[in-house]
Amino acid sequence: MPPKRPATGSVLPRKDANLRIVSFCLATALVFFASSEVFARNAQRHGPRAVSDRDFYDNGRPDPLKVELGRLLFFDKVLSGNENISCATCHHALTDTGDGLSLSVGEGGVGLGLTRNNGFDSEAVHERVPRNAPPIFNLGAREFATLFWDGRVSIDEDGYFISPAGSDLPEGLDNPLAVQAMFPVTSGAEMAGQPGENAQADAAAAGDLPLVWEIIAEKLRGVPEYVDRFAAAFDDVDRASDLTYVHAANAIAAFEAHEWRFDDSPFDRYLRGDRGALSGAAKRGMRLFYGKAACGNCHSGTFQTDQGFHAIAMPQIGPGKGDGIDGDEDFGRFRETGDPDDRFRFRTPTLRNVALTGPWGHAGAYDTLEAVVKHHLRPRRSLLRYDRTQAVLPPRADLDALDFRVMDDPGKVRAIAEANELRGRNLRKSEFQDLMTFLHALTDPAAQDLRRDVPFSVPSGLPVLD
């Protein structure tokens, strides 16, 4: 009798079926492993590469004396007109170098982070700061040659700084991060105060930026400990009269660049060769990020930003920047270039430590990372269906009345939507979760506790507490 053979369409013996299932699973695992290894090699060769000291000014090792001086200045309210707010108020170590709010509560506010209110009586804030306070992580890297949401600080092709000060910008600034530090002190809403309240505010309102910086320098010259620290940190400072606000800005930049450099996330370790640094879900999310989800089209390069400007239909909340017929819009990069194509474009932020840096967007429109990622996947729909509970804004009736004027105007919302240049993407629920896992793998564990950066006191004797 000939041996029996399974008929077409019949079930294989259990042993053979199990062997085939095992073989299939092993083959699938090998393909995934191989493709992940190929991606890692290609990522290092063609896409993101591991961060190194060479990426940073001073090769990542600024003068410690300058760093410590910058730390004290950053937390010292003496830089403000009414001596009631510091750089740290909106970029605090305890709030992940931001402030946890959609739009900052500047000069006149009371408290820190989510506890900050709009102030009281005649000393209360006059307006919300119109844009979200961006995080400072890794901004000491050389590639961050353009700063602010609209790029109003940059370096031209000849190596000269471009800034709102124009020819009034003094010489001697070390890098764009130091240039950036020259400007919050000149803003009435942020640090200077209102005209009539102090000399710094009067100079700022008059547009006399050199006088603003001289007034602050004169205050620093009157603090003996600061004079000693500046003399120790800078070769060209021998006496109080040598001290300028340029020195202060350079010190602040050195502090920010050194203390808030973070490049030891699981993703960083993976790029440096530790293949076990990322979980399976994070690796799948990484492939989505640079592939199907197309996040890497804009969030490219070493620090996951193309350093460019894009219109992605972000909701506009808050008072705006004075643009448009009613003055409640924010035209973004257009404000600097005058190019109509740049309307509603804003700078691509780095994604390092992105899970820590909410709210997200130029106006802080999204309070959860999940919500802002979903916006990127469906920008126009997300704009039109914006959930206003995502806004984190300390209440006050007159300010509240301005917060959603743009979003209440169909024509203005339509203009934002029509400028959108981000194509929608479809992800399955499991893919979305993998993408989120990868984004969390961009967090350096050391960035999760920055308490050590906060000084107990500052040389001016003013309170560090907000």
What can you see in these coordinates?
- With 466 residues, the chain is mainly alpha-helical.
- 36% of the residues lie in helices and 2% in strands.
- It is built from 17 helices and four strands.
- The protein has helices at 14-46, 64-74, 87-90, 176-180, 188-192, 199-205, 209-221, 224-233, 245-259, 266-271, 280-289, 334-337, 369-377, 379-384, 397-403, 410-419, 429-440; strands at 154-155, 161-162, 309-310, 346-347.
- Helix 6 (199-205) packs antiparallel against helix 7.
* Sheet of most strands: 2 strands, antiparallel
CATH superfamily of the largest domain: Cytochrome c-like domain
What's the CATH class label of the largest domain? Answer: Mainly Alpha
Share of residues in strands: under 5%
Helical segment count = 17
Q: How many E-type strands?
A: 4
How many domains make up the coordinates? 2
**Based on CA inertia axes, which overall geometry fits?**
globular
* SSE topology string: HHHEEHHHHHHHHEHEHHHHH
Low-pLDDT segments, ≥5 res: 1-15, 27-36
Cα-to-Cα separation, first versus last residue: 94 Å
What is the radius of gyration? Answer: 26 Å
What class would the helix/strand composition place it in? Answer: mainly alpha
CATH topology of the largest domain: Cytochrome Bc1 Complex, Chain D, domain 2
Spatial order of strands in the largest sheet: 1-2
Mean pLDDT over the full residue set: 92
